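Researcher: Please predict.
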Amino acid sequence: KAEAAQQEGEQDSQAGSSEKAEAKKKDTKGGNGTCTISIKCTSVLKNMDKLSSGKAKYVPSNGIILSTSTIEFKEGENVYDILKRSCSAAGIPMSARNSSMGIYVEGINGLFEFDCGGTSGWMYSVNGNAPNHSCSEHTVKNGDSIVWYYTCGN
């Protein structure tokens, strides 16, 4: 899942790299900063035949659940904090659980792990790289570009 998803994440996050360059950077005195976040499920559009029954209604026609948004954060916040706050502000349902590795995001906007095949689920990238650790373990830095993407494992 990780290797296929990383390739997909690199494709989805290439746009994030240019978005990062365009992101307005704020003064970080006091440990505050800004980052960008987007949420995509474009891989599902190519794999609708694998999608679980009744799930098509959760897939936007362009695959974009949350277009690139600039978020302010405080020192010490992590990728999960940004996702949770962004989803809450946009009215996007999100489900996560604690695991031995940190917080695991099970579903966003009605799309859950395994909804599009046995290796499908949510992953994230920061500045075009897919970290190999939980989103709750990745501290956000000023100017970061976070992309959440749903992978169908192919």
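Model: Strands lie at 33-40, 64-73, 94-99, 102-108, 111-112, 121-126, 145-151.
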